[in-house]
Amino acid sequence: MFYIIGLGLSDEKDITLRGLEAIKSSSRVYLEAYTSILMIDKDRLEAFYEKPVILADRDMVETQSDEILHRADVEDVSLLVVGDPFGATTHTDIILRARALRIPTRVIHNASIMNAMGACGLQLYNFGQTVSLVFFTDTWKPDSFYDRVKENASLGMHTLLLLDIKVKEQSEENLARGRKIYEPPRYMSIPTAISQLIDTESTRNEGILTPSTTLAIALSRVGGGPEHERIVAGTLEELLAQPEERFGEPLHSLVIVGKRLHHLEVEYAGEYAVDRENWRRVAREVYGCALE
């Protein structure tokens, strides 16, 4: 059996009992280590699961899956994924490859940012399409995400932005020369994300993102408990003015608030606001939310 097992969002104890049983029965256990990161070291996973864990990077998962799937038709093999297994298309692809080889597969679900984002107080059924925001460079500033935000905004829906991470990436020079030298990991911060949003708005100039009146909520390490989790709400302008350390450690996500805003959402998220009175004012005057 080939298992893909969600680990949840925080540490080794977020595993489900069903997931833990599958790990215990597996002859090999891999940890997918590039679409997201766990908040703890691999050593803690190995100690808790009482199993060695093999790190599986992008190359192994995407181009060397035969190594992972080897003998999975006659013994149990597990691939561990931060969050939920279906949070990335990579995991769908490896399941399809396993099925093509007639290997039995089983998915064991867990919490992911796609449902845990409700911690900020916005209701999950008021979210539209989720969007990934990648690091801009001097020569590459993709703005396709803007169209998704615009579509969501036209329906009054909230938008979850997943901020870019760069793990085991090569520089253009090293890639061209075929050198297996990797850049240090980078994780997009909330200020960087907002700066890129404002930069894109200034180019597109369609009025979707107005720094002084677009409400947003920054999320960090959701599910990590009060010592790790950070939620900060405000206008884009207010969030950009905050010191970077206020947003906590990566991974970060950002929610753009849609106009279909319920008064209970305003009240709940207002507890995390930089300026609660301004949060309520913008919600009332710009978003048309009826507040008591």
Structure description:
This protein has 292 residues and is α/β, with parallel strands linked by helices. The protein folds into two domains: 110 residues, Cobalt-precorrin-4 Transmethylase, domain 1 (3-Layer(aba) Sandwich), CATH 3.40.1010; 174 residues, Methyltransferase, Cobalt-precorrin-4 Transmethylase, Domain 2 (2-Layer Sandwich). It is built from twelve helices and twelve strands. The strands form three sheets. A five-stranded parallel sheet has the order 3-2-4-1-5, sandwiched between helices. Strands 6-7-12-10-11 form a five-stranded mixed sheet. It has a two-stranded antiparallel ribbon with strand order 8-9. The protein is globular, with a radius of gyration of 21 Å. The model has no long low-confidence stretch (mean pLDDT 91).
